[in-house]
Amino acid sequence: MSYSFDARHGLIILLAELFGTSGSIIVRLALDTGATRTTINVGLLTTIGYDPSLVPEPHSNDRWQRG
Known about the structure:
The chain is mainly beta. It has a domain at about 10-55. It has one helix at about 40-45; strands at about 15-20, 25-30.
């Protein structure tokens, strides 16, 4: 599947299915072609079985935060 990009059409939203130990969930994600990371709402992740307390603390040079 492919689409032509036209910035005049605004934000690109994709549907994605996330899988966890307790099932799966369909989420809407904004496509950022320059992004090096993806942010997913922790509430959605816990719904499908992920435990945020098991995520290691970020290194001081990482540019993200839990919360």
